[in-house]
Amino acid sequence: MGLDERPLSTLHEKGSYDVADFEVPTGREEEWRFTPLRRLRGLHNGTAPHEGGGDPVIVEIEAAPEVKVERVGRDDPRLGRAYVPSDRVSAQAYASFSQATVVTVPKETVASSPTVIRTRGEDSSSAAYGHTTVILEPFAQATVVLSHHGSATYADNVEFVVGDGAHLSVISLQDWADDAVHVSHQHAKLARDARFVSHNISLGGDVVRISPSVVYDAPGGDAELYGVYFADGGQHLEHRLLVDHVVPSCRSRVDYRGALQDQDAHAVWIGDVIIRAEAEGTDTYELNRNLVLTDGTRVDSVPNLEILTGEVAGAGHASASGRLDDEHLFYLQARGIPFDEARRMVVRGFLGQLIERIEVDEVREKVQEAIEAELEQGARG
Questions:
Q1: DSSP secondary structure of 313-359
Q2: How many CB atoms lie within 10 A of CB 165?
Q3: Which of 118, 163, 193, 258 places its Cα 20 to 30 Å from the Cα of 233?
Q4: Distances from the Cα of 379 to the Cα of 292, 295, 342, 373, angstroms
Q5: Residue 336: pLDDT band by 50, 70, 90 thresholds?
Q6: What are phi and psi of 63, to 5 degrees?
Q7: Each residue of 87-112: pLDDT tens digit?
Q8: How far is CA 145 from the centre of its chain?
Q9: Cβ burial, residue 211 (10 Å; 0-12/13-18/19+)
Q10: Which of 240, 228, 249 minimizes the C-alpha distance to 272?
């Protein structure tokens, strides 16, 4: 398959399933200028080692009883129908996976428990590629958890196909080991009156670059994209979002929040929202906030809003990055709370507003524990 013929906005120039249609990034391109290419271990230029004994990544699935899960080959016609890769790593992942996971929630089915897809890295010296397609048939409801841990050099694509009136909640947890590299595209396609809620939580890994995107196939679609990340010294955590309003009367909300501590911790957030000429009645807002806990960190936060029609219900964006509020700390310390505990309380409140939205108790508690461990490490440092 070649280039996607649908004209794209100036924010995103092309899409293709063919790796050769994308030039090798140099770091000067807008979409790659914040990413440390030398640390991607060749995922971006075709030199990533793809050999070795055993499987470097293991996929384990715990499915709700009402949900159908299949492991399929590359020739399955359901793969790649909702999403066309938009950069070279994504195209490489699409060209290189050997097996894919397909999750199907039948029409009008309400899943009684989350479906959990665990991706465990066994060996970061050899690259691995993956593909997952989640299909909600009309009026179905389900929650899917994508859990990533272990050591890996991994690139994958995830498609969410949400049918008419269906409701899908997705929680993607990146809790990799310190040496892991993960580059992923997570794309949702929403039908009429479909609802999609996602939570992206990035805590572990050396370099993690997650690119969530949403496109609407019919009016009435509603997407809420939330994210929490905590970058430590030397970590690069990057989230690049695209919400593409292509039809009338759809809604989107984006709220990502991060904390950073220690030397060379780097967080990148890019939020692109496109409202095309035919997307009258769009209601959208995106927000990114970052809390800098120590010197030596770096935050890049870039909201982009491209509006091609004047008939919108609402459109806006905001971005803010800063240190702990001295007044908040003083207020707490004046009431006998030690500095370290006051610091924890402020960070808990800042990130907790989004963590509390995570509807799966096990995941929410795990994230809370991980944030506490990060804060404890910062206090010792």
A1: SEEEEEEEEEEPPHHHHHHHHTTT--HHHHHHHHHHHHHHHHHTT--
A2: 17
A3: 118
A4: 14, 14, 11, 10
A5: low
A6: -100, 150
A7: 999 999 999 999 999 999 999 999 99
A8: 12
A9: buried
A10: 240
Query: Which SS3 state, helix, strand or coil, does residue 159 take?
Result: strand
Distance of CA 315 to the CA centre of its chain: 22
Structure tokens at 345: 């309380």
Specify the length of the chain in residues: 381
- Contact in structure between 175 and 235 (CB atoms under 8 Å): no
The tokens of 293 are what?
């806990």
Q: What phi, psi does 233 have (nearest 5°)?
A: -55, 125
pLDDT of residue 19: 96
For 273, the 3-state DSSP assignment is strand
For tokens 């030690």, the residue is: 338
CA distance 353 to 351: 6
Residue 361 structure tokens: 């108790």
User: What does pTM read for this prediction?
Assistant: 0.93
Secondary structure class of 379 (helix, strand, coil): helix
Tokens linked to 268: 């990148």
Amino acid present at 48 = A
Query: From its phi and psi, is residue 37 left (phi > 0), alpha (psi between -120 and 50) or beta?
Result: alpha
3-state helix, strand, coil in the chain (%, to 5): 15, 45, 40
Residue whose C-alpha is closest to residue 136's, from 169, 113, 185: 169
Which of 180, 296, 300 lies closest to 238 in space, CA to CA?
A: 300
In the numeric block, which tokens belong to residue 170?
């997705």
